[in-house]
Design goal:
The complex is a heterodimer of chains A (474) and B (639). Chain A has 474 residues and is an alpha/beta fold. In chain A, 24% of the residues lie in helices and 23% in strands. Chain A starts with 18 loop residues before the first helix and ends with a helix. Chain B is built from 21 helices and 21 strands. Classes of the chains: A alpha/beta (474), B alpha+beta (639).
Amino acid sequence: MSLPFEERADRFQGYREPARSVMERLRIGVWSEVELVNDSGSVFTGVILPRSETADPLHVVVKLINGYNVGVHADRIVKATETGYKKAVYKIPEKDFPRDPLKKNVTLLGTGGTIASRLDYRTGAVIPAFTPGELYGAVPELADIANLTTKKLFGVFSENMGPEQYKALAIAIGEEIERGTDGIVVGHGTDTMSHTGAILSFMVQQSPVPIVLVGSQRSSDRPSSDAALNLMNAVRTAAECDIAEVMLCMFGPTSDKYDLLHRGTRCRKMHSSYRSTFRTVGATPLAMVSRDLFPDGSHFQYINQDFLRRDKARKPVITPVFEEKVTIQYYYPNFQPDIIDGLSDMGYRGLVMAGTGLGHVNKPIYPALKRAVARGMTIVMCVQTLWGYAQMYVYDTGRDLLDIGLVPLDNMLPETAYMKLAWVLGQTDDPARIRQMMTTSINHEITPREPHNGYLILQGGLPEVEAFVNKHWK
Amino acid sequence: MERFDYTSAGLISGLEVHQQLLTSHKLFCRCPAGLYTQTHDGEVLRHMRPTLSELGEYDGTALMEFKTKKEIVYLLNHLNVCTYEMDDTPPFLVNQEAIDIAMELCLTMNMDLIDEVHIARKQYLDGSIPTGFQRTAIVGLNGWLPFKGRRLTVTHVSVEEDSCREVSDRGHRIVWRTDRLGMPLTETVTGPDLRTPEEVRDAILLCGLVARNTRRVRTGIGASRQDINVSVRGGDRVEIKGVPRAGYAVKLVHNEAIRQVQLLALREELRRRGFTDPTHVRVHPHDVSDILADFDLSLYHLRVEDRGRAYAIRVEGVAGLAQWPTQPDNTFLDELSGRIRVIACLDQPPIVLSGAALPDFAGRHRVAERIRKRVRPGQQDDWFLVFGPEDDCRTAAEEIRLRFVDALRGVPKETRQALVGGYTTFERILPGPDRMYPDTDSPPTRITPERVAAIRARLKPAPWERLDRYAGWGVPEETAHWLLRRGGADIVDAAVERTGVSGRLAAIVVGQQAKALARKGIPVESLDIDRWVQAFDLLTAGRIPREGLAPVLTALARDPGLDAEGAARAADVGLLPRGEWMARIHDLGWEAYRPGHTDSPDKRLRFLAGQAMHALRGKAPAREVLEVLQQKVAQEVSR
């Protein structure tokens, strides 16, 4: 038949006592094709699946021949016959990615995320899968857009991205530019995609080609996933778009219409699950990119003309540094000064305060802030309203904070400020230089003006908004 | 319907009965269930791509549906859908009320309940569900229903979310309304135990009765839909989808049996012509737009002008086979047409024409002549004409080839849509287990023995037990069925158990009199079991006569604040002591009697009865009053 029972390494994958002993006694295990009979005489014919480790230890999961999964209580199994053994190989059909000398060369760097994914039986969740062949198997349309090379840098979920990954990513981007790629796509989980967009904007400056972060809000294991369209649009952006900046490429509306290109320093994930979750804050997105042609015959509609243009002669500046002792604090009423003292005691060198209103915190914490600054901590002020500027001259409280030595960062987003402060502190501990670097905009993380259409949160329910919204794809 | 010997054809049929459950909310979100709307305040556009099954294979249906490259539009109304239905929010925990109802159904059908219920995703790429899959879970299996002296196997029951309602499907764009999406329903799957169309109909009715008997399912149009699986010996499983009524099943099953027998005969004909291998089916598409452009073909002409093309597709060796009969009045050309309509999205009639049977139009012979010169059909060949965008015409050519390849095997496994008149048309290739996928968004639900015990404790008697009992009481069969379907059975059972009233009387009061009151606009359906029981209490305690029930029920229904005693007072109903009502009868006078020239004892009796009715309604037992009146009339006559 097949592998002897004892030689199957994962035969109890995920199963614990008491179900495990029952399986051992009945000589059935994961991937056994079985006929189980329970104490009511019901027969379960199918394959035993691995058990999620977070599930209870009482049931055996059988995938029935009709495709449904059921959990059978181990104590109720009175008879089990193994009729075969078939380990499932979950694989996206892999094909050689075709190359066309007339097409641009794009490099896809993988960090994880759900651009391509498969099931993990251990947790019952989806895990990323990734090679050019697999991608071509899953999204063959990519071959019509560009020649694709892929490199798997790490396989981590978005929330596990950190300093080591940022530095490695910046270095890898530098190498790919050196090799002459026409554009770079970074596959990334969406949760911290804008954080990565921000840090890469600082670590990789003066890029000659587009650097496009892309992910999906609906994993690619679903028919309705946004992954394929996002990926096609990201690859097209990397290959053909004129904007040589770090950008995020994600759905504009929730409909399968077009993606928006958001500047890495100016955007944010604004909904936990919507496809159209990323929004540019305090400005307009750079461009729209669509699989179908826009009326002017182009795949791109540039919204903003103020950007760095593609120029393969330009040499990038890669500065992969990151100070890890930096934190961000979201101010709230009853915020206690000992938090600041504690951070200072623990050796934190940088603190981003997300203050209320125009950039405020309450008076009782002033002494703590003063002590921290005196001990060399850089404290910068952003606004937790996300839109608008820290304008600390308006009220006395703000002016007091300036006297203490807080650095107001205008309309820099708190997460962007965090990334920038970590990056700056990775290079210097000179307070004047830190202040100067933090307040000098590198790539629009601070903008001198906020246009009125940079703040548009339409309020649903209003007649005029409903009339407008009704006319457009969601 | 022509006569047909189902036994010798080896007809086998089974059911998949879909029944909406009566829950307040949908299955995986907190949207209200059962709130339908005809307008929308938002639209979403999506596409679907096939994904891999858990075991790493693509499902055939999924791939087929992907070929159609449809734009899918969802109409949204904020009253009945949220971001879950739009697939912009993961599912919330499964609605336990729905699981409870499904468990109740399972227990009634003698099923074994699943110990741990796992939610699966069943792929549908037609767009009927925005996620691209239906969340579904088996709750019970291995059950049976008593059916015509034997047992009808119930293979399994699953609880699943309902799909969208189709608004339109034109070319490459399909539009869906989302109000129904996500409502909980059960799917009851029977074994392939049915042998005639009439059995199929009766099994549908039985399943309906079981569901209705719980009083926890939705009723009305679309609340219950059947899929019928049919095959004949040598044929294969064909699923007739969306049969709205039991009665429609008879002709649909009959016609499908004939279709399969005919397709098997076609297979023999193909073999006789030397087709034994799929490679023997050879098609040769030719662009003939230029030929048709020279003729005035009205409709077709327009389509050719509108950037469309006309293709003539020669198929070797199939002369005359497009005219092979399948269903009554249908031919194999309709089989080709169905596939082309669905997969190539060429949906404007005539979808496909056979060169052997072109319709009449001016210049037909010259057109046919020029096309023949182009495609050069041999004696044994036929050619087919399709119109539309070039890609779609090429897909159509491929679908024609594939359909003939399927014909070599006999009956292709497919889902067919039920049409009026008992016909069916191709909807999709029958999906297999490969389209099933575990739902990684939802944890499994453990069904504890305590929960099963609680549901078993409140389980209503099975419908067949009730029908037996009511038959034993002498309740007319029609009334008994009505009670089960409309919920009166619970009232009858409670009244009999708690008041000792005769079962037959209770059944007739609830199943006939109450129905009559409702027809008069009296809201008797608002009466709960307790108030019904109070009314029957008055009867069995001798406080009101049988005729007093209707006025008491009317008063109870009209004033929710009343109890039965109050209702009796309000309706001026209450049994008088015999002596008292006898005295009142004695006092009935003849002042108003107009004998005319047809005076007779009968007429006198009718007059007195009218008087008595007026004076004693609800105060004396009608039958006894009548006896007394008969004596009174007799005495007066003899006098």
